[in-house]
Amino acid sequence: MKKIIIFMFLGMFAFNVQAQSNAINKHFSKFQRDTSFTKVTVTSRMFSLFTEIDAEDEDEEEILAAMAKLKGIKALVKNNSANSKNLYFDAVETIDKDGGYEELMTVEDAGENVQFMIRDDGDKISELLMIIGGNENFMVMTLYGEIDLNSIAKLSRVLNIKGMEAFQALDMNSKKK
Amino acid sequence: MKLILSIILFLFCCTVGTAQSKTLQELKDSNHVQLGFYFTPSTLRMLNLQKDTAYDDMIKGVEKLSFLIMRPETFSVDTYFATVDKLMSKENYEEYIIWDGNGDELQVFGKPNSKEMIGLAKYQDQMYIFDLKGTIDLMKIPDIYEKASTQDSTSLNGFNIIYDMIKDDERDRKNRERWRREREERDRKRDSIDAAIKVDSSSIINN
Fold it and tell me: In terms of CA atoms, which chain B residue is nearest residue A156?
């Protein structure tokens, strides 16, 4: 039941299918009919709703602005999977082959691997891709639109949603820069 | 219990409506609905037994919320997808959110500049339809979700009442279904006994 709530809320943070690369589309469509995977798509229409909200403070204003710039979110999740690490490496390989993504950050330890990749459109980040594999869980999540890494990190911290906490690492990364 | 809360909260992730969808109205008028809950702002506030201010703020803009539990005997998976198709092709609704996992489905539809959001869900063998008219304060959701996830179930007392009603209805439906099967079985037995008696008596008469 908790899973349903998590994914329903996950659905709040969105994206737009046409803007994605072929590699990602291929990867998602590969598991389209596999019912052991959970697939979540949030379209740009959903994000447009955030433009109608009045912010109560500066933080909220920044989060709303970041959300309004998103065009969509797509996630592919598999829990309690014995081959989550294989799924992770398979996803990383597929994305690497595409050649359109730049590695932003990778965290690998005995328990879990996390990789962030970005695709830019000139001087703006147009897609942020996160791949997680380990601890029996696998997830690929892609956010696209106009991405502000600091705001995404803040968004994930404020919203405290399972699966999105990995985005908080991006905040540290941007500080290092 | 948390399903109901999450469904209602999820709908709140969306916005509002004035014009009723024709497809939805037809469904509401049909015998597909097993149990329907219709909330107005005042009845939604009544669910907030803990007087949570974040919840009250969140629902401030809601005009009406309908939550329909569909009858599994008539509202099949095919009917579910036919409804989705109708909403999109005939009424120009657009997909806002699609969730698909472990055979369960959730789709939320809306129209740009419209104040109506419609959600269809398939959870286990049961189908649900939700219809939200009005606006919701999306920024209150994380706070409410956090409370629902961490506090004990007493914070959800209002929703527990709804959940209990749904469970009671489901139990009654299953009982009715069992009684119907038992009655049919009894009728079949009686008919076969009647037929046997008829055959027996006609053979006696013939002899």
Answer: B142
